DNA sequence: GCCGTAAGAGACGCAACGTCTCCTAAGGAG
DNA sequence: CTCCTTAGGAGACGTTGCGTCTCTTACGGC
């Protein structure tokens, strides 16, 4: 096999490393993911990993970024606030299904600086959805208390962190219909 | 020194072990707490720990239980729903201050079965508070959607898990005044 | 075609794990 | 009071993964 002496470099190698990290994550889970395991899977040495990321958490976060591009920036537009918010939550729940609660718990415990943009992304999207609903006259005002605006995202996150089971569609609807919409309609 | 040959046993020893675990937790934090460290602090061997708890998480949970008795069962009665709920949240926030987010994150990541009673305690207390408010005629009905009832506790928990800073009184008031009470009043 | 950079490979010392073994104090049974 | 079972105290042991380090060698820009 000719690939035998081929030595990967730069971006190509980095992509392979992140792929290997992701594969290892799926294979053994975050708790038992080791730098040596990832290195072995990528058929390289640990040093190559440490040259780029200084610990498990950083490596895994990088791998996740590569895999699950940014959710944000794509504001849904279903015509109703309810539909928009549900859509945002579905996107968040979907991302959770990809990542899994164990990884989230692990990162929370190990990452010194969980980049807020990692958990706080949904806020801007929700603000836009609410503003558009107000413009349509669907709700009285877009001027909500900060905590109300982040409420759907916060509750979803809470659910993800504590449930260990994938979040169901029913749960998302409860969040929207029992909590968020009643607060906004007035 | 005569204490030198005294060998502790049973419950007395167990209490010493849990004290040592708690002290170690305060001294080095959950991330760097080790079984060997706890054993050394308790002036005994690891085996004595492993005979009782099969890992860090179990040991620490036991230590916490001994230290911070049960919050529940003591339903505040301030005369107003607002006061009662705030009081419950303050108790929860206080417990957090004792324990610290790092320990919580660690347990979440390591404990296979985070006993729901550990995180879900506040629910029953809130139910009682709401029922009494309804009896007083302060609110129209005590028949709230499940998710609304657990809302204050859920939001506090979310805050605790993601903020890393102690939860402030302001935050508690936001939860109650901007989110919970508006939902209940109607 | 030369040469600096970084990949590939693995040895190293260290810290904790969880298991084990050995000895001996404690304290109940008779 | 003595015997005997139980469990505490102490530490050795093999293992795993960490993070660092060293060495050789391929790559690819100049």
UniProtKB/TrEMBL annotation, chains A, B:
Record-annotated DNA-binding residue ranges: 34-53
GO MF entries: DNA-binding transcription factor activity; transcription cis-regulatory region binding
Record flagged with keyword Phosphoprotein: no
Alphabetical UniProt keywords: DNA-binding, Transcription, Transcription regulation
HTH tetR-type domain span: 11-71
Gene3D superfamilies: Homeodomain-like, Tetracycline Repressor, domain 2
UniProt xrefs under InterPro entries: Homeodomain-like_sf, HTH-type_TetR-like_transc_reg, HTH_TetR, Tet_transcr_reg_TetR-rel_C_sf, TetR_C
Pfam families xref list: TetR_C_11, TetR_N
PROSITE patterns: HTH_TETR_2
Listed PANTHER family: HTH-TYPE TRANSCRIPTIONAL REGULATOR RUTR, TETR-FAMILY TRANSCRIPTIONAL REGULATOR
Protein name (record): HTH tetR-type domain-containing protein
